[in-house]
Structures are given as C-alpha cells and as structure tokens.
Amino acid sequence: MLVCAAAPGTSPVSANGCTRALNKHVNTDSREIEVKSGMMKYVWLSMAFMMIGAQAQAASWTVNGDLRERYQSFNNYDFNSTVNNNAWEFDSRLYLKAQGDLGYGLTALLQPQAVIIKNHTVANGTQNFTQADLLQAYLQYDIADFALRLGRQQLVYGDQRLLGHLGWKDVARTFDGVKGMYKSGPLSLDVFAVHPADIGMMTPTPTVTATSPGPQGQSLVTWEDRRLIGAYGTYTFAPNSGIDTYLINWQHNQKAAVGKGRNMNTYGARLFGAWSGFDGTAEAAMQSGTWSNGVSQKASAYAVKAGYTFDFWKTRIGAEYDFSPGDDKANATTHKDFVFPYHTNHAQYGEMDFFSWANMKDMRLSVKTSPLDGLTFIGDFHFLSLDKAQGDWLNVVGTGNVFAGATTYAQTKAGTEIDFKLVYKVAALKGLKLVGLFGIFNPGAAVTERNAGKADQAKFGYLMAQYAF
After folding, report:
1. Which residues contact 378 (CB under 8 A, 6 or more apart)?
2. Which residues 6+ apart lie within 8 Å of 226 measured at CB?
3. In order of start, what are the domains of the chain with their CATH numbers?
4. Could you report the per-residue pLDDT of 319-366, keeping only the tens digit for each?
5. Which 8-state DSSP code applies to residue 136?
6. pTM of the predicted model, to two decimals?
7. Running DSSP on this structure, what letter comes out for residue 238?
C-alpha cells in the first residue's frame, strides 16, 4: 500500500511527490527487507523455471510484450508559485508475458517486468535507477465450472474503485496468494486470500549514506505484514447488465509499519448496465471493523455515473457523482474516512491525483469522441469539494494528506480539475499507441484557507508512446 502525508501546516504532498515520499512510514530494517525480498524472488524464480521447463509438454505457448516510454512534468503541485518545486520524469517500462497450456487442465502465466526511471526535482537533482522483477507468475487449474489460481497475480474488479491493477504506474499492483473461481451461466464468483506482493515501488531515495550510496527503490511492504481475504460475485441478468456484490477483509498484523492491528471489512454492491446507447453504474460500499489498535472503522462511499454514446464520431457524453462522508475527528476512537489502498483513484477522481474516494464530493462531466479512425479525444471536468471542512483532504492513495484537517477550517471548495487527453493508434504500425495528456487544477477557497493564502494553479502533463507486440 502506498502511504504519504504532509505534516499539519506544511505544503501539500503532490501525487508524484507522494510516490517519492512514501517510505517515511516504512520503518522495517532495510536488511530485513532485502533478505525477505531475496527469498521471495528465489521462490518466484524457481516457479518461473518450472513453468518454462513445462514448455516442452505444452499444447501451446504464446509470448508477447509491451514497451512504454513516457515523459511527464509536474508544475506547482504545492499551489505556491513562489517556490520552485517542479519536477519531471522520464520512464521506460518493458513487460514480457508468456502463457502456456500445459495440458490436463493446467495453464501457466509468467510476466517479468523491467523499469528504468530518470527523475528530477530541484531539491534532489537528477536521479536514475532501475528494477527488474515479476509482475505476475501463476499456475491455474481448470475443471468444469471451477478454476484455482496459485501464485503472483493481479486483482481487477468492477470500476476498480476498490481493486485494480494500477497499470498506469511503472510498477503496477500485484498480489501473492491463491484465488478460486466459479463461472456458470449468469453467475460468477471469485474467492481469494492474498498478500500485497513484495515489489519495490521504484521511488527515488534522496538520503545518501554509507549503506545507501544513491537513489534506489524500496519495498512497498514486508511480505507478511498485510493480507486481503475476500469474495467478489457477479450476476448478469441481461446482456452487459447485472450486479456485483463483494466482501473484502483487509488486515495488518502487529509487525506492520502502519495500521497495527487493522482488521477491517469492506462490503457493498455495484449495479451496471448498457442498452441502446446508454450505459451506467451505481455503487455503494461500507466499512466496519478495526482501523488500528484502539480505533474502530465506520465509513461509507457512493458513486453513480451514466452516459450516452451517439453514432456521430462514436461520441459519448457522460456525468458522474462521487461522494464519501468525511471524518471531522470529533471522536478519536472512530475513524470515519473511507480508505481502500488497492484502487485506481487516478482514473476516477482526476488525473492529477489530488483526491481519493474519501471526505469528498466530485461532480464530473466527460466527453469522449473519435473524429478520425484511430484518433480519440477525451475531456474530463471535475468540480471537487470536501465533505467535512475539518477533516483531512486525502490524496490519491487515500492515506496521505494533501492538507491535514483542523477544527478551525470552514471552507470546503477544493477546486476544479480539467483533463484533456489525445490517444492515437498508429495504423501503419499495429500495436503502437501515442498518448498526450494535459491537466489543470484551479484551487478553491479550501486551498487558500489551508495553504497560508497561496492558491496558485497546478499543472500536469505527459507524452507517452506504447508498443504492444
């Protein structure tokens, strides 16, 4: 889980800055992390060799890959133009995927990844670092309507407000564990028990010491500290229409760097449908249980969206409303912010990553159109505010503050975000996609109140080339 926060009264932590400052909460001894990470890599490497060794007996074996080059720039993410904390980053990412049918109902998937990042900030200068690891590596056994998957795998469900692969990041989210699957007619059910995978987050480490001579990625979590046990079911009652229901238990043990003793249940339902050009979803989720030692969890979150697609340029016009009650911190023994750390908030509540599904209201208007073959334009307009002025303003990861709350705060208008994206699939070279995005966040009164009167515009942009082969 990604965790970052700005101290009360300090400048906000940017979304990209968040991914640079997260490790402040990870207090596990670095040598312990290296040993555990090394042991796990030996396990996965052994599994990989077993899969490759089975290739000779496989009825079929396919290999494909994905290469991505991306430049991105972050401007004025603290809403204070008098301070130069702008940043840029150039990322190269390679995924390879091998899928094999081993016979007797067994299939295998092996997906290694390699990442090279050049990151620049005014404070730390230019840093370069690399990483290679396994994104996925599992065996699956299918019999009749049932399947069992064992190994490193991704969990992707619904609109990914709770569980998603986070594929836009350089090192996407993945889990180690087991998943059972049932599919018969209109009913499907997944049951899983997993740990977050012990993969480095590819975050620059500015501190240089004798034992840490330069920038490096650090582990997201120690492998045994956290786990998810859950069930996600879907019943389809019409073509492209149905209902999802789920129950997910999220735990931290007493060794966890944060959230010791966490034992929290998230449960809810999602309706979805598409017919005659219309599409829509509605989701409600509740949380109960223990947030940390001595603190209970009581929270909820809601979302509804709808759209209509015209034949003209395949144009979709949509609207969405997202809401989650905030925590005014009046009761220290109850945590009331909705938090789930394995979502894709980046895709839901603004490309600039200033919001998660907690203490928030977001009215979103969107348009998507394809005026030319292979060319798509996407525009999103977010009108964002806090539910509780006194509560924390939580960033994309849901557990770090853009601004910490205070009892004296009265303003809730966070601001507006406008995101424009162009996607071009190159016909002359199948598999090549070019993407450009530009985002602007115009701060509201809540920023002025929390940021010592500073409320300057923030900007974000990226250019990306992605080739699937």
Report:
1. 366, 367, 368, 419, 420, 421, 422, 423
2. 1, 195, 196, 250, 251, 252, 253, 256
3. 15-468 (2.40.160.100)
4. 999 999 999 999 999 999 999 989 998 889 999 999 999 999 999 999
5. E
6. 0.84
7. E
